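quick one
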Amino acid sequence: MGKHITKAVIPAAGLGTRFLPATKALPKEMLPVVDKPAIQYVVEEAVMAGLNDVLVITGRNKHALANHFDRVTELEATLESKGDGHKLRMVNEATGLADMHYVRQGDPRGLGHAVLRARMHVGDQAFAVMLGDDLIDAKDDLLSRMLTVAEDREVTVIALMEVDPSVIHLYGVASIEPTDEEGLVRVTGLVEKPSAADAPSNYAIIGRYVLQPEVFDVLENTPPGKGDEIQLTDALQTLATDTSIAGGVYGVVFTGRRFDTGDKLSYIQAIIQLASERDDLGPDLRPWLKEFAKGL
Ligand code: G1P
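structure w/ 1-O-phosphono-alpha-D-glucopyranose:
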């Protein structure tokens, strides 16, 4: 059985061009989903799964991210003097959440390149990679299950989800074989963003990975692929086909709820769904939504 995994890496250096002009000066990971920046949900998910050491791979606008997870003493003092304990707790929630670290990606050359930038921090340990665009329902224990599989078997684990063939070209896609464990498959091959005709299955990679440290050497030797970028999927393809490197690749099949906040329509849907389920907003939002929908 492998060592206990404690580190998560969140690549957050993308330019966020799909959300311009909102992302001109703000990292897209800071866009609010209801009232929390998207990245805070991801850090909370990491912490819930026991990963308290979080490295964010940032781009140009690193300050907003780092500030969000840091103290704001003036704001804390103002809220305290007003006796607004509720807001003070919300402000402090992000501050004490995890042991946060930041490294800049520099030249953005793809997800594989971003993960390589974590090498110094991660060292010789297995670690999780969590993509900020994917929000996984807090009720789901996807990441914990992935960590258990990675620790017990000392292998690489990715999260897979069945998607409609019409959207398969947006994802890394896996060929799989069943194992004797329910919801766990062995990945025999991977391809980044194939056309529907070339896709080996409809099992798409969603943004959660548990990687073994051998991935760094493989990434170093992975040439640019799709979009002329160094693709994590291509490195995983090497690890899936040569199981002598790090024990092979397994997939945990996710059947729960996931929101893609990297896409404008899904982002709006995520906000509406999450807000309508909240105790503070739901009771007013739900009847309003029904009335609103009548007029459509
Ligand atoms: C990335 C990966 C892709 C994966 C996807 C999940 O693509 O390259 O393999 O399926 O995340 O969200 P991106 O969405 O960053 O283009």
